[in-house]
Write the structure tokens for this entry.
Amino acid sequence: MKQGNSLTLVPKQIGPPRLDPYGRLLARFYESLFFLTSLGRTQGEHTPEPPVLDIHQECRRRFLKNLSYICDFRKGGQACTAIAVEDRVDCYRFWVASNMNVNKAVAFIREILAMLHDRHLDASNNESMIEASLIQRCVEFAAKRIDSEGRFLRIMANRCILMLEDEESEAGMTFFLSNLLERALSCSRNITLCRFLYDQRHSAAMKELSARAISDKGRPGRAEEDSCFSSARHHIGRLIHHIRAPIELAQDSRHLMYLTDAYTVCPVSPCSAVSCPVSDMHTNLQGILNWMFMADDEDRVAVGDGLVYINKTRPIFDTFLAEYNGRDRQVHG
């Protein structure tokens, strides 16, 4: 199979089998990732995380998740960070892995953990002031990322406003949504933009934006990323989380004070990436579905037909094969 061609649905000839177990596993691993990449936002709404019965465990997971998030200061995955905690006899050790400049992430985590520790020792117990300082520092650290997200939002917000102006009715939710987007466009500072959107997250205008995004996604032949409303909602959600993440960190740290009493923060040395496999005669839709589903799985045919249907409006099969281009790979959360 030549690169650049569309993904073959059914193989016309049988090639040599993938006899090497590791090579076979690696091929299947990348096939799944490449399919997720090619599908993009056609995947639909986010699936909510299953409820965790252990409240303390949920609190600790959210704490580490948000701690990792605030380290991701640049879009594109280069600063994507993962954190794990080792329970040692003398302290808790935070192990930090990042695609790029892990030492920058380590220094920032030390600073944030120190702020959370000092918060617990503050006799004045002025939580709102300490929380505001934490938010300000996180927004400053993620300035490059917020600049990018804000730039994309402004592009989409202007498109949304133009579409709303074309509507006959200028009353009701249309007016409130236009007003929300125009006020967002007027925010010149990152902290002002993020805070404004966070304060408006449960507003009627925000619900109207979500409703329009879902409605556009359901229109025949219209992919979600083609909708300015869904794109605006996506970038607004990212900007809101720059406020939500440090707030949740501060809240969860009250129940995890032991983590900031005695700790160290250490980088994980980056390891070499495994070379991406090349596409071959087994890289076809039928072969991929064969290992994804049991032979008698009733969802197998439905998924295959669904992928073929999506490919008619958006070339996901071409995008899938284009991923076999040999470029370096990196983890991207």
